């Protein structure tokens, strides 16, 4: 069974100040703020911004501590594009396809993401320097 690619779900942007960055995007581009959450275990606070297209959003990520993954990213690369998230209909099959292509995976198994999604990250080494996230939405389960 092969996974079907359903488009770009969101792009993740690393920022130092979540509120300031969100305010800038909302005012300048007329976006609206959506789901916001703090994931203590990952040391990150995230907010999803609606782009006007319900199927694609912008995720702003700010570190809760400097030694978190996003904190280290900001330290080494500064603010900007952190990951591109692709929506798939079958994340297990999509991960299997990446494995078959020899793409190094950050997550060997899908894990729980926000908004009831399943997510998994693949290493930037496998995709010319860009961290890739796979997302399966609950309605896509089959
Ligand atoms: Co994301």
Structure at a glance:
The chain is globular, with a radius of gyration of 15 Å. The longest helix is centred in the first third of the chain and has 12 residues, at about 20-30. The protein has helices spanning about 20-30, 70-75, 90-100, and strands at about 5-15, 30-40, 45-50, 55-65, 80-90, 110, 120, 130-135.
Question: What is the secondary structure topology, with strand pairs?
Answer:
Blueprint: E1 5-14, H1 18-29, E2 32-39, E3 44-50, E4 57-63, H2 69-77, E5 80-88, H3 91-100, E6 111-112, E7 118-122, E8 131-136
Parallel strand pairs: 1-4, 5-8
Antiparallel strand pairs: 1-5, 2-3, 3-4, 6-7, 7-8
Please describe what this structure looks like.
22% of the residues lie in helices and 38% in strands. It is built from 3 helices and 8 strands, in the order E-H-E-E-E-H-E-H-E-E-E. The chain binds cobalt (II) ion. Cobalt (II) ion (CO) is lined by residues 10, 12, 59, 83, 85, 133. The site of cobalt (II) ion has 6 residues, from strand 1 and strand 5.
């Amino acid at each position: 069974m092969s996974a079907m690619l359903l488009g770009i779900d969101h792009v993740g942007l690393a920022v130092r100040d979540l509120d300031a960055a969100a305010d800038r995007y909302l005012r300048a581009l007329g976006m609206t703020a959506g789901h916001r959450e703090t994931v203590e275990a990952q040391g990150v606070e995230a907010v999803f911004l609606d782009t006007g297209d319900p199927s694609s959003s912008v995720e702003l990520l700010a570190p809760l501590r400097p030694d978190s993954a996003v904190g280290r990213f900001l330290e080494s690369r500064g603010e900007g594009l952190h990951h591109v998230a692709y929506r798939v209909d079958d994340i297990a099959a999509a991960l299997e396809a990446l494995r078959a292509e020899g793409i190094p995976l950050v997550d060997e198994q899908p894990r729980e993401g926000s908004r009831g999604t399943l997510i998994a990250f693949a290493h930037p080494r496998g995709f010319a320097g860009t961290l890739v996230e796979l997302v399966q939405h609950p309605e896509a389960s089959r």
